[in-house]
Amino acid sequence: MRRLDYGFTGYQVPVVPRASRSSRGRGQIRKKCEDNQIRGFGILSSVAGNLSQGSESLVPTNAACVQDLHHIVYANSNRERDEGRSLKQDSCQRGTCDEKFFAFLPGLQGHHKSYKLNEFCHGQNNLILEVGSASGAYDQSEMIFFAEKLATVNSRNNCVSSSNSVIGDSPCFGEFFEDKVGGVLEGKLGDKSYTSISEKDGIIPITGSSEDLIELDREPHALVGSESDVKLSLLDCINHVPCPKHYDNVKVITRDDDENSVRCSQHSTISKSYTPTAGIRERTKKLSASRNWREAQKLKGGQMKPMYCNGTNRHMDERSQNIYPFKKRKFFCQNPPCTSDGGDNRSIAIGASSSIAGQVPPESKGCNVKLSIKSFKVPELFIEIPATATVGSLKRTVMEAVTAILGDGLHVGILLQGKKVKDDNKTLLQTGISQDRKRHSLGFILEPRHAQITPPACTEDQSWLPGCTPQDLSRHSAPLTLQPETQAMVAVPSIGMEALAVVPFCRKSNPEFVRRRIRRPFSASEVEALVQAVEKLGTGRWRDVKLCAFDSEKHRTYVDLKDKWKTLVHTARISPQQRRGEPVPQELLDRVLAAHAYWSAASDKATG
DNA sequence: CTTAGGG
DNA sequence: CCCTAAG
Questions:
Q1: For residues A442, A448, A450 and A454, what is the CA-based torsion angle, rounded to 10 degrees?
Q2: Residue A236: which residues within 8 A CB-CB, separation 6 or more?
Q3: CA distances in angstroms from A473 to A33, A205, A404, A466, A477, listed in the order given
Q4: Which residues form the HTH myb-type domain (predicted)?
Q5: How sure is the predictor about A570, in pLDDT bands with cuts at 50, 70 and 90?
Q6: How far apart are CA A525 and CA A538, in angstroms?
Q7: Integer distance in angstroms from CA A516 to C1' B7?
Q8: Are A571 and A579 in contact (CB under 8 A)?
Q9: Chain B bases having any atom below 7 Å from a protein CB
């Protein structure tokens, strides 16, 4: 003991006995669901498989079916066609690129094959979705889905996301493209490298990642090389419309709430885990909407239940008070109620729609069903953002909202003339998808996978959209629907759509994501308070420390305090030259060491 | 929920 | 800061 005059009455064995843990009870253990990330794809895979099965009953295809992609694509509505072309050719020049879906569904005759999702990725530029067959016997009927999704992206990141592999997360992925499919690709995209590689190696690596979707402003980096050239080739195929210009319209920059901390970009660090969403946790950026939402939580007081729905726990609630950048969540099946700001923020409701074009060429009667999916429809996308927010922040907010939806938990729904096609076992013929006269009414929709999702709690508080009931909200997306036929999709009632209607990071719609709290360095006064409290209470009563010294600082949890103490001890032990960040007064560090030594000794004495 | 520690 | 096993 170096000294005893620490400015308090001396170290003592804790006076206040702690309640036994058993008396405090235990909550349920959170359960993680590792494979959640791919759940969204599972349905799609099954859909693809069913579509393919359906094709088995179809008449052999006409080779012409696959010859002219451009004949297939955009052959639906005028609006879609024109827009599609203009997008393909012009969008990059205006600073956007087409985000594309590809789904190849080779159908077979007389061969029962299992189709597996080959790729599903959404990088900043590409949302690629391919379903291939492991079989080399393709007699007939390729079903080609070509979807394009317009997204504003930064072209510099073309292919950069290639290294992030969805396959790596699940054995369910990583199937083979074989010659037939490759031929299809070649025929459409004219990319030799892709074809040859697909034939030779048979494996199409996953490309893209969620994190890249968010962090758009970084330069391409070495990641690209790690997954071989195949991805690049594939991307080259997909992005055969070059985007040569520099786009920064979706640049995402982070600024911490805390005045003490400003982060502008993070170009260097790459998440060690390349699941598509893991990087989000590490590197995605907090947006103003989320901040406002969080603050609204705080301000609402008793009106809203705490995030974790436990009114008895004040400390866990604190965590929810903070602002979270997106991060990967290991699928806690919690559905914290989302809320919206009742304050003076003006809200902007954005109905994000998409349209799907489908066509059955007459010459392929009963054979191939070729669909061009201009874009998946996202049922609802409502953004809440202060009226004072900048356009840039709006873009970022929308981007993040979209990312939140795309990141996980999606399910592809089929809409035929506005009605959901629920029976996955029906063939396309039986369903009517293959019938020419109905081609205009086929739609695909992305929905949350968790159909059991209950309507968001914040539904009760949608005053931020004056005069709008949730039903009204649904209508808002209709005017933005590109194609008249697809408006029917908007009207399709869906619980999932309800859930998506509150994208302001209502994690219901995307339980994969939580937001990492922003970093808030401890101030000197906080350190002082912490040291003082620990001197008094010891190093094993962090809840008491919290109550004693940080009760009013809702963003400091007892875990935070414990962590801070840990770092303080570490800081005190290393040389001043090694210390980083805001320097802590040596006097405090000395007290830290002294208190730490004292309470460690006390602990040892009690234990041994 | 809290603690305690590793990441 | 996050995550989580233990208590």
A1: -110
A2: A159, A191, A193, A194
A3: 32, 39, 19, 11, 8
A4: 516-573
A5: very high
A6: 19
A7: 15
A8: yes
A9: 1-7
Average pLDDT over residues A161-179: 29
Q: Is the pLDDT of residue A41 over 80?
A: no
pLDDT score, position A605: 75
How is chain A split into domains, by residue range?
39-246+354-375, 522-607
- Kindly tell me if the per-residue pLDDT of A102 is higher than 60: no
Q: Is the pLDDT of residue A565 over 80?
A: yes
Separation between Cα atoms, residue A34 and residue A170, nearest integer Å = 9
Q: What is the dotted CATH code of the domain comprising A522-607?
A: 1.10.246.220
Q: Which amino acid is at A256?
A: D
| CB-to-strand B contacts below 7 angstroms | A 18, 21, 24-27, 29, 308, 310, 312-313, 315-316, 539-544, 558-559, 562-563, 566
Predicted local distance difference test score (pLDDT) of residue A421:
75
CB contact at 8 A, A541 and A18: yes
Confidence of residue A541 (pLDDT cuts 50, 70, 90): very high
Residues with Cβ within 8 Å of residue A133, at least 6 apart in sequence: A52, A106, A108, A113, A114, A115, A175, A176, A178, A181
Is the pLDDT assigned to residue A572 strictly greater than 90?
A: yes
Strands A115-122 and A127-133: antiparallel
Asked if A30 CB < 7 A from strand C, the reply is yes
End-to-end CA distance of chain A: 19
Contact status, residue A398 vs residue A503, Cβ threshold 8 Å: no
Give strand pairing partners of A515: A326
Q: For residue A402, name the pLDDT band (cuts at 50, 70, 90).
A: low
